[in-house]
Write a structure and sequence with these properties.
- The complex is a heterodimer.
- Chain A contains 6 helices and 6 strands.
- Chain A is mainly alpha-helical.
- In chain A, strand 1 (42-44) and strand 2 (50-53) form a beta hairpin.
- Chain A is extended and about 75 Å long.
- Chain B has a two-stranded antiparallel sheet with strand order 1-2. Chain B has a two-stranded antiparallel sheet with strand order 4-5.
- Among the domains of chain B are: 20-203 and 250-295, no CATH class; 206-247, no CATH class.
- Chain B is mostly helical.
- Chain B has helices spanning 3-31, 39-53, 63-86, 103-114, 130-160, 170-196, 253-261, 282-306, 310-336, 363-376, 391-402, 413-433, 446-471, 486-500, 515-544, 561-585, 587-595; strands spanning 206-219, 237-247, 346-347, 438-439, 442-443.
- The two termini of chain B are 28 Å apart.
- The chains are: A mainly alpha, B mainly alpha.
- Strand 3 of chain A pairs parallel with strand 3 (346-347) of chain B.
């Protein structure tokens, strides 16, 4: 009985210190020093409306834009319901999906091997990045659709490619949303 | 496999090893109640806890008293988490107005967090309010880890002490571990994570206007919100234009730091550390991954220091590190080979291999490294989806847990797990030379070995028992499967392995949020935690009472490479004998089927 009372009192103190004070302290420091990051690294347009987060991918489907990876989150890149496909390597659903997607990709850029990230879903369904190879793969299509020189596009891709952190950690990558926003800034937003 | 990938893995292992000594020494001082750097701030807080809880930190407990205090604290914790979830709909800080999760889901989550499992039966951003996450989950992330650490320290005291029945004071160990070790490290890392882009706010979810709208097919609903069906009973579909994106927010950073450090692993968001707002950059990934094994590795140093044989600490470290490296290498090679069933014009090598369920910014090396580390420890957080790994790639995390999570293992839990294995090792070594086995100056006798065997047997009983029942039940066991064939068995086996092992990672395709799975996985977590702790504490209590046996020429030394090799062998043999049959029917069978071109 003594232990039960002690447990209750201890848990009460732990709840105040760890469940209230600790998150509030991190919140205070975060909001004071890194307000942009702490609030979701949001991107706003000229009117101040939120148009996305630097860290969260969006479902680009028009051929005039660089497209991200397939997504298993909700209707596609639903950042209120993150999810992977969770399909195992021998799943028919998975293999059929990869086959379908790779046929569609092969049609747009015949004869070139398709980088695997373009036909596989990410763990979160919100992956904001593609590999530089996948960006290159799409340059020809976008140049044709928008009527702009491939060389300019390639320059843009390489400027928007991030290297490994300190040259060591992670993998080289291209942020699809940031690249597409730049695309619209430079060449105008295509009418649907 | 790439050179850069191997370098990333080596850097990780090196940083862990370098930090083991300073943290190991610090931990030893904290649990001995000595003054440390942080005492001037935290000392008064610590004394406040003792005062309010009416505890005398100097009054030591027997193994039974220690166990009862631990059980009571866990019970109260579990009830509190259950109540907070069930009441979240009328508690504050619920901007999304989420309803209370079901009884069985709340039971599962309560048990899960109190046992340091942190299995995610819940969906994070779609299920739990900010208040539930903070008061319920964040608090348990700390204290369930501190309970594990306290138990490991009690066991080590049992080994280090002679002719006493006292193992220390549970409350003092609990408070000290939380305040001096977990809290400062979590705060530091949480702030670093915010700087990388992990969210920490209390606002409602944001809505972004999409640059490129898209159309999806959804079920048509009538004015009352009911789904419309045609004559054949099929749902009628209609086009819907998606022009906005909801972006989940919340106080994530504070919880993520401790869920990594405390080998908890329960994510703030549904997909855990694969979520870009939970793990946005390679640097955040490195920090989070470091936290997984930081305390478990440091514990090997603490062990050596407390039993006054640093060589023994390093011998245990060596055995564990060997198994860890073997796991990493196996998973890395398997995943790098990619999926042979993909069409030939898909270039898997350019991204490093099997990429389904992996994130581009993290890449192959960091995904397999995390998967191996999270299952070696009882962490269970993920940064890639284990369900989509190649069969051998997915076998590695499963095997790590099946071996009893003794490859560094959970904070504390890994340490007392390996100590039980050590008892068995010296026992078998003793049998081989025909002498009474000894461990650090103590005779290992029938009672100790009986308790060790009980510890070893409860584990497979829970895993294999629940798996067998689920597999034989088409209406409540098999309906939850996301994958068919051998992979389906893997999903179920992994769930109970993860539950009993208090790991919490998942082959997440299995829909475990059902009455059957929430309840049975909840039970397996209770069995895996408390039924295994009791024999472990009994051994500790018994060891503490023994007299010193002076070391002689015939004593089996426990600070040598030979000891490490023998320890590795025992861990592997016990694991293999128990689980090889079921593994051969799941991932191993699937491996051959995959290369034979078979799909399900």
């Amino acid at each position: 009985m003594r232990d039960l009372i002690t447990s209750f009192l201890m848990l009460l103190l732990f709840t105040i210190s760890l469940g209230v004070i600790y998150p509030l302290a991190v919140w205070g420091v975060g909001q004071a020093f890194f307000p942009h990051q702490a609030n979701g690294s949001l991107i706003r347009n000229a009117q101040g409306e939120v148009i996305g987060s630097e860290l969260i991918g969006q479902n680009f489907t028009s051929p005039t834009y660089f497209q991200g990876r397939p997504s298993a989150a909700g209707n596609g890149y639903d950042a209120g319901a993150s999810s992977g496909s969770n399909l195992g390597p021998t799943s028919e659903k998975l293999i059929d999906r990869v086959k379908g997607d790779s046929e569609a990709r092969a049609a747009e850029n015949p004869g070139t091997a398709i980088p695997a990230d373009l036909v596989t879903t990410s763990g979160s369904g919100l992956d904001p990045h593609i590999s530089p190879a996948s960006a290159d793969f799409q340059v020809a299509r976008i140049a044709k659709e928008r009527g702009i020189p491939e060389r300019e596009l390639r320059d843009m891709v390489s400027r928007y490619s991030e290297d490994r952190t300190l040259g060591l950690l992670g993998e080289p990558r291209v942020n699809v949303l940031m690249l597409n926003l730049e695309l619209d800034r430079r060449f105008g937003r295509p009418v649907k | 496999m790439t050179t850069n990938g191997i370098i990333q893995i080596l850097i990780y292992l090196a940083v862990l090893t370098v930090l083991a000594k300073p943290l190991g020494i610090y931990m030893t001082r904290v649990y001995a109640g000595e003054r440390t750097l942080l005492s001037f701030i935290l000392g008064p807080v610590e004394r406040l806890f003792y005062k309010v809880g009416r505890v005398d930190p100097e009054k030591e407990m027997t193994w039974r008293q220690y166990g009862v205090a631990m059980l009571m604290f866990s019970l109260v914790s579990g009830i509190a988490v259950y109540a907070i979830q069930r009441l979240q709909f009328f508690l504050p800080l619920n901007p999304q107005q989420l309803a209370a999760p079901s009884e069985h889901s709340s039971f599962n989550t309560a048990v899960s967090f109190m046992t340091n499992t942190n299995w995610q039966g819940y969906g994070g951003e779609t299920t739990l309010s900010y208040l539930s996450q903070m008061l319920g989950l964040t608090v348990q992330n700390f204290v369930s880890a501190a309970v594990g650490m306290a138990l490991a320290i009690a066991f080590i005291r049992g080994i280090a002490r002679f002719q006493t029945d006292k193992l220390g004071n549970f409350w003092a160990d609990l408070v000290r571990g939380t305040l001096y070790i977990l809290l400062p490290l979590s705060f530091l890392i949480a702030v670093l994570l915010v700087s990388q882009g992990v969210v920490q706010n209390f606002k409602a979810y944001d809505t972004a206007n999409l640059t490129d709208t898209f159309v999806v097919q959804v079920d048509k609903k009538d004015d009352d919100g009911n789904v419309v069906t045609d004559e054949a009973g099929e749902n009628v579909k209609e086009d819907k234009t998606i022009d906005t994106q909801t972006i989940a927010q919340g106080p994530a950073a504070s919880q993520i730091a401790i869920k990594q450090l405390g080998t908890n692993g329960g994510g703030f968001f549904n997909v855990n550390s694969a979520h870009p707002l939970e793990n946005p950059t390679p640097l955040s990934n490195f920090l989070e991954m470091l936290l997984i094994l930081l305390i478990p590795v440091a514990f090997t140093y603490t062990l050596g220091r407390m039993v006054r044989s640093q060589g023994h600490g390093w011998a245990v470290y060596g055995a564990m590190m060997f198994l860890l490296v073997v796991g990493i290498a196996t998973a890395y090679i398997a995943e790098s080979r990619g999926n042979p069933l993909y069409p030939a014009n898909v270039d898997q090598a350019v991204v490093g291999g099997n990429y389904e369920g992996k994130e581009v910014r993290l890449g192959m090396a960091n995904s397999v490294l995390w998967a191996t580390a999270t299952s070696a420890a009882s962490n269970g957080s993920v940064n890639s989806m284990h369900d989509s790994y190649t069969p051998i790639g997915g076998l590695v995390p499963m095997t790590n847990i099946l071996l009893g999570e003794v490859i560094f293992g959970g904070v504390g839990a890994g340490m007392y797990g390996i100590l039980v294995m050590i008892v068995l090792t010296v026992f078998i070594a003793g049998l081989m030379v025909g002498r009474t086995p000894e461990y650090l100056g103590k005779k290992i006798e029938a009672y100790d070995v009986k308790m060790a065997m009980l510890y070893v047997l409860i584990f497979p009983l829970s895993i294999l028992g629940f798996t067998a029942v689920s597999v034989l039940a088409p209406d409540f066991g098999l309906t939850s499967l996301n994958n068919q064939g051998a992979h389906g068995l893997s999903e179920i086996l992994y769930a109970f392995t993860s539950g009993t092992g208090n790991n919490g990672s998942a082959f997440a395709g299995l829909n475990a949020n059902t009455y059957w799975y929430n309840t049975t996985i909840g039970l397996s977590m209770l069995i895996g935690r408390f039924l295994m702790i009791i024999p472990m504490l009994a051994i500790a209590g018994n060891l503490a009472q023994k007299k010193v046996v002076p070391a002689t020429l015939g004593t089996f030394p426990v600070n040598t490479v030979l000891f490490s090799v023998l320890l590795v062998s025992i861990v592997l043999i016990v694991g293999a004998l128990t689980f090889f049959p079921v593994l051969s029917l799941s991932p191993i069978l699937e491996h051959f089927q995959m290369y034979a071109g078979q799909t399900f």
